[in-house]
Amino acid sequence: MPGTFEPLPGGGAAVALDDVEISIIRSLAVQLLELIGPGPGEEAPADPLAELFAEGPSEPPSDPVLRRLFPDAYSDPEEPVEDDEQRAHSAEFRRYTENDLRAGKRENALAVIRSLDELAAAGDGGAVLKLTPEQSQQWLGALNDLRLAIGSRLEIVDEDDTDLLYRLPDEDPRKPMVMAYLWLGGLQETLISTLMP
Known about the structure:
Elements: E1 6-7, E2 13-17, H1 19-36, H2 40-43, H3 48-52, H4 64-69, H5 84-122, E3 127-131, H6 133-153, H7 159-165, H8 175-195
Helix pairs in contact: 1-5, 5-6, 6-8
């Protein structure tokens, strides 16, 4: 079981993680939370009714990682939008969906942090993380977001870019992020397999 998720009887998944692995995943999840930013209710006390009708941003984020996490709905992320009507549709879609998307991504990252904190508090030298089916879905979403964020920083656009990463020399400053990207991909793949019927 080390380093791979295994299915649990009755649903959910389990993986053995050591202290270093717990620390790495937790640190990346915290960084993701910081990048996504606080939710509308976290900035100031909000009126629940006003929050229900709150509109999000209409422009894509300037940070390339956030653009990858929150892409335009009606355009190719690699090509600039030329059509004014297409731009207007994307802006309207973003205005009504981005706040909810951010909230979901925040909740997934927080679920990862909480479960790792519980695991770290329970044992020495690592332990077996056991996830419910719901937690498995949250972890899957967070692992996907972490890989998208790291992939964006590494400028991974397609499979050819990933192949080049395997050949990076050890001295390359990107190597630790590449290793994290590949490791998280393995975790994600094995977690997906536990969720398959």
